[in-house]
Amino acid sequence: MDPLWITIAFFCGFLIRQIGLPPLVGFLVAGFVLNALGVSGGSTLKLVADLGVTLLLFTIGLKLKVQSLFKPEVWAGATLHMLATIVFFGGLLFAAFHVGIGLFADLNTTSGLLICFALSFSSTVFAVKVLESRGEMSTIHGRVAVGILIMQDVLAVVFLTASAGKLPSPWALAVLAGLFLVKPVLFRIMDRCEHGELTILYGFFLALVVGAASFDAVAMKADLGALLIGMLVAGHPKSKELAKSLLGFKEIFLVGFFLSIGLAGAPTWETLLMAGILTLLVPLKVALFYVLLCRFRLRARSSLLASFSLANYSEFGLIVGAVAVANGWLGPEWLTVFALALSLTFILASPLNSKGNAIYQRFQNFLAGFEKSGRHQDDLLHPLAANVAILGMGRIGSGAYDLMRKRCGTQVVGVDFNEDSVAVHQAAGRDVILGDAADPDFWEMLKFRGGFRQLELILLAMPKHRANMFAVEQLRKAEFKGGIAAIAMYDDQRQELLEAGAHAAYNIYGEAGAGFAEHVYEAARMNGTLPDICRMPKNPA
C-alpha cells in the first residue's frame, strides 16, 4: 500500500478519534483528501477493500445462528422496511422531480425506483464495525440488525443476478451441495491446525478459496460464499478463536474499503447538494425501522439501537449505481452522489450510535409510546434474586461464579447478554439469566423492583471497559450500598473504574500470574509436593 495512503489514513483516523468519533469516519475523510490530491485508488486498493469485506462477512458467518434469520422481526422486518422505503422515498423523489431540483429533474420512473431500491439498504460494514467495537454483536438489537443486513444481502444477490440478465452456472447447486458434504473434512482439518499461524491461514483459505472463489466460479456473489462458509463452520469449537485470530487482518483491510469510498468520485457542488438531500431522508429510514421493530414486540431501547445501527446507506448503492450507469439507466454523476451520501450517513451515524443510550434515556417516555403490549421472548428483563451477582459470564466471569458459589453457597447469579452463553451455563447447572448491563432499562428494573435490597456484592466481568464503566455509574446513581468489583485490561482503565466508584478493580493480566501461583500452591499443598521453604513462616521484609 502506498505510504501516502497510510500516512493520511492514520492521521485522519487519529485526529477524528480525538474528538470522540470512530476512526472509520477519519478513513472516509482520508479518502476525500486523497481524491483532492489527485490520488486514484487503483487495483491494489480495490483488492485490499475486497479482502476486508470478504473477511468481514466470513467472521459474521462464524457468529451467526441460521435460525435467527427466520425470526419474523428479521425476514419480515427487512422485507417490509424495503417496501416502505421504496414507497416513501419514491413519493419524495417524485415531488423533487416535479419541482425540478438538480439531478432529480432528469429522472424517470425506472431510474427513480432504482435509486429508492439502492437507498433502502444499510451498510453491513458500518453496522458490524459499530456493534463489534461496542461488544454488542450478541445482544438482541445486534442480532436483529445483523439478521436484517443478511436478508438485505440476499435481496442484493437477487437484484445483481436479474440485472446481469443471466442465471448462476448450472454447477452452482453442485457447489452448494459440495460445501455441505465436505463439512466433516473442514472440521477435521481445523482440529489439526492447532493454535498458531496455520489457523489464521486456514481462515483465509476458507473465506477466500472455499467460500468466495467457489461462488465466484459459478457466477454467484463471492461475498455470499464467504458468509455461507463461515456459517458452515460456526459450529466448530474453534470458530470463536478463528474469528479472533482474523480480527486484526479484517480491521486493517477494511481501512482500504473506507478509503475507496472517498476515492469513488470527485465531488461537485451539484453532487454535494444531491447527496445532502438524500442524507436528510435517513431519519425517515430510521423511523420506519423503529416503528416496525416495535411492532414485532421488541422493547423501545432494542428497537432504537438496532435502528441506529442501520441509520445509513449501503456500499451496495455504489454497486447499484455502477450497474445502472453501465446499462444507461443513470448518469455517471450518480456514482459520486451515492459515494458522498454514503460517506455523509456514516459520519452522522457514528455519533448517533455512540450516544445511543443517552438518546434513549433522554426520550425514553416518548419512545416507549411505540411499544406494543407483550414482549419478545428474547427481550425480557429478569430480576436478580441473589446476594452476589456477576455481570459478564465469559471465562473470567465463569471462574468467578464457580469460586463465589463455592464460598457463598447458592445465592450467586450470573448475567450475560449472549443467549447461547446463557443456555450453556444453565445446562452446566449455573444460575445464569439473560440481561444486558449496558441497558439503562436493566438498572431501572432493578431499582424499581427492589433488586438492590438483597444484593451485597456485584462483580463486573464484561470484556468491554465501556460497559463496566456504565455499570459502575448506574450503581452509583442508584446509591447501591454493596461492594463493586470490576476487571480491566489496562492500568489506566483500572484507575478509571476506581475513580468512577468501584471499590476494587483488577488488571486481568496482572492478576493472572498471582492466580496461577495461588492455584499451584494450593494443588501442591493438597498433594504433598509443596517445597519445604514454602511451608516456613516468612519474616516481613
Explain what you see.
The protein is mainly alpha-helical and 541 residues long. The chain is 67% helix and 5% strand. Strands 3-2-1-4-5-6 form a six-stranded parallel beta sheet, sandwiched between helices. Helix 23 (465-477) links the parallel strand 4 (457-460) and strand 5. Helix 2 (23-36) runs antiparallel to helix 17 (333-354) and helix 10 crosses helix 11 (222-232). The protein is globular. The model has no long low-confidence stretch (mean pLDDT 84).
The low-confidence parts are: none
Helix content: 55-70%
Distance between the termini: 56 Å
* Spatial ordering of strands, largest sheet: 3-2-1-4-5-6
User: What is the 3D form?
Assistant: globular
CATH class (first level) name of the largest domain: Mainly Alpha
The strand count comes to 6
- Sheet-strand content, in percent, reads under 5%
Specify Rg, calculated over alpha carbons. 26 Å
Averaged pLDDT: 84
Q: Structural class, from secondary structure content?
A: mainly alpha
Could you say what the CATH architecture of the largest domain is? Up-down Bundle
What summary fits the major beta sheet? 6 strands, parallel
